[in-house]
Amino acid sequence: MKIICIGRNYVAHAKELNNPVPESPVVFMKPPSALLVNDKPFYYPEFTKDIHYEAEVVLKVCKNGRHVQPEFAAGYYDQIAFGIDFTARDLQEECKKKGHPWEIAKGFDGSAVISSFFPIEEAQRSKGVEFKMRKNGEVVQHANTNDTLFSFDDIIVYVSKFFKLQVGDFIYTGTPAGVGPVQIGDKLEGFLYLQERFEHVLTCDVR
Ligand code: ZN
């Protein structure tokens, strides 16, 4: 399986990092070894002093396909999860300055936190998925995936031009405004709006 990630998909977040708003999705990947499942703690790595959280809705691919046409895109994902795309912002800034790839800043062990998956509801396909994250009890990110520049379907269409989508692939769909640093001792909690109420679906302690 592969973990595909979309960057700068919410205008307010692109602006908070002084990045231009992209004309096509910004795509990068994390290796499967980056996954952190079952509410396991995240161990702050020694190679960075500036880990940021990025709360994101994650899609699970349910069908193999390449060059997916827009009218069929919705058939390629059927489950959603809450994820955290941990980012070593200091390393990423260095990589960006040098024009280097981002992998060491984005794909390190434990950088792809993921909750359980839930079936995507019909209403969520039209009204978007609402999600929020708390850090130490305070809401730091709260958004709806309808506010993205590129919809779930747009992402499927674009990504499948380059990479064959395979059953079981994950797609991190980008983070809204409100990203920020974590410190050892912090507690992150993820919530998805499911069946007309917010459900607590993820806990991640930083150690
Ligand atoms: Zn991200």
Task: Provide key terms for this protein.
single chain; 207 residues; alpha+beta; Fumarylacetoacetate hydrolase, domain 2; 4-stranded antiparallel β-sheet; 15 strands; 18% helix; binds zinc ion
What does this structure look like?
18% of the residues lie in helices and 35% in strands. The chain has a single domain, classed as Fumarylacetoacetase-like, C-terminal domain (Fumarylacetoacetate hydrolase, domain 2, Alpha-Beta Complex), CATH 3.90.850. Strands 1, 2, 3, 5, 6, 8, 9 and 12 form an 8-stranded mixed beta sheet that branches. Strands 11-10-14-15 form a 4-stranded antiparallel beta sheet, with no helix packed on it. The longest helix is centred in the C-terminal third of the chain and has 11 residues, at 152-162. The mean pLDDT is 96. It has 207 residues and is an alpha+beta fold. It is built from 5 helices and 15 strands. A hairpin with a 2-residue loop joins strand 10 (130-135) and strand 11.
Short description:
The protein has 207 residues and is α+β, with helices and mostly antiparallel strands. It contains five helices and 15 strands. It has a single domain, classed as Fumarylacetoacetase-like, C-terminal domain (Fumarylacetoacetate hydrolase, domain 2), CATH 3.90.850.10.
